[in-house]
Amino acid sequence: MKFHGGIPGWFNFADFYDWVVQNAPDKARFVEVGALFGASSVYLQSRIVASKKDIKLDIVDTFDDKNLSMESSNLAMPFGGFRKTFDFFTRGRLGDNVRVCQMPSREHAGACKPGSLHFVFLDGSHAKLDVLQDISSYLNAMAPGGILGGHDVDIPDVAQAVQEAFGTRFVRFGVSCWYVQL
């Protein structure tokens, strides 16, 4: 585990988030699925603010303690659990344009209007079936030209799910990200 901006996590895709924000339209709506302790969320929010674009961001996670690795669980224990650790590290660093949605990703996707999302980043469960379900759940909510992507395409289950969903249409970005422009 590394620290980014003083927040522990495995955030290694700042260049991808930079690219997405730079190319996003004004009045866009973003979704980040899987927040851990908020390192990537805080970074994405900082890029949104710097862009001066009116971008809304939903951070979606169940914040279920049983989903944490042993290393993450040990870090979260002194704070009182997963969600309290996220809240501690993100306090004062997320703006009014950010909504933290403590729910399963498929529930969140089902509540999104068709064509309303410009960017969805999947970094929740890395199990093949979960990744496939997340992709399927968010597809209808994507705006034309929107970007659906994610992290850890170097993990076999994630790679298999992305390949199964998109064939050769997906693009690798950096070491571990993938995306499809719809």
Structure, explained:
By secondary structure, the chain is an alpha/beta fold. The chain has a single domain (2-181), classed as Vaccinia Virus protein VP39 (Rossmann fold). Helix content is 38%, strand content 25%. The chain is built from 7 helices and 9 strands. It has helices at residues 14-23, 39-51, 70-76, 82-90, 105-111, 128-139, 156-166; strands at residues 2-4, 7-9, 29-33, 56-61, 98-102, 117-122, 142-151, 171-173, 177-181. The strands form 2 sheets. It has a 7-stranded mixed beta sheet with strand order 5-4-3-6-7-9-8, covered by helices on one side. A two-stranded antiparallel sheet has the order 1-2. Helix 1 (14-23) runs parallel beside helix 2 and helix 5 (105-111) packs parallel to helix 6 (128-139). The longest helix is centred in the first third of the chain and has 13 residues, at 39-51. The mean pLDDT is 96.
User: The CATH topology, please?
Assistant: Rossmann fold
What is the C-level CATH assignment? Alpha Beta
- H and E order: EEHEHEHHEHEHEHEE
Radius of gyration (Å) = 15 Å
% residues in beta strands: 25-35%
Question: Which outline best applies?
Answer: globular
